[in-house]
Amino acid sequence: MIYGSQKVIKTNSQARSFGNKAGSDWRGRIWNSNIFSFFLVILLILSFVKVSKEVILRYEINKEIKELETQLGELEDKNQKMEQLVAYLNTEEYVEKQARLKLNLSKPGEKQIFLTGNESVDDLEVSGDDSPNIMKWYDYFFN
Length: 143
Fold this sequence. Notes:
The protein is mainly alpha-helical. The protein has a domain at 9-100. The protein is built from four helices and no strands. The longest helix is centred in the middle third of the chain and has 56 residues, at 34-89. The termini are far apart.
């Protein structure tokens, strides 16, 4: 009986090993096949291409973000300058200055003095000379 049970055990272990060989045999054939290796290489290349496209896209997006941030900074500076200009234009000092310059207004008790240059027509010599232009230039420079 011991001999028979040992035989059954051998038979069961042989059946198990046969099942394992059959299971590992088709897996081994797939892992060792050239088609599967080719498929894995193609899959690896496609993955690399996809990842590289994403890296390039991320780089371009970051570059554009930096450009937009610099533009935003410039626009904020311009906005601040405009706000300062608007604040200055709303002050009494600016309104008074413009009223004096453009409307010739003055405060009560002030006297306005206008200084203008007196250019006489005598300074501008108008000649009725009909001599050629070259002679006029010669006379202008050398006489």
